[in-house]
Amino acid sequence: MQYNSSLVLIDVREPKELATFGFIPNAITIESKSFSQQLHTLPSDKETEIVVVCQTGARSINICIRLILEGYTNVYNVQGGMLRWMLDGKKLQRTASIES
Predict the structure, then answer these.
(1) Strand residue runs (E) in the chain
(2) d(CA 15, CA 6)
(3) Contact call for residues 3 and 43 (beta carbons, < 8 A)
(4) pTM of the complete model
């Protein structure tokens, strides 16, 4: 995967959650349950800023811990997850069909 920015936003929710609630534009989706198998797709620069989001913030904090253990130094969790994002009225993208 090619990254064009110094900031990578990763959404670790399942496809049904993405379809139901929408997603943050330009977010990369990697389901939390398959995250370990996808580590090789992340930027090799361990100083890349990585922001992780899930529905409530619980899964994403676990992914953040995993990234820190892998040596990434600029890792952030979206506290409150997508629920907080929506309550704050921030931009979401929706799609007609997301495969599950």
Answers:
(1) 7-11, 28-29, 49-53, 74-77
(2) 26
(3) yes
(4) 0.86
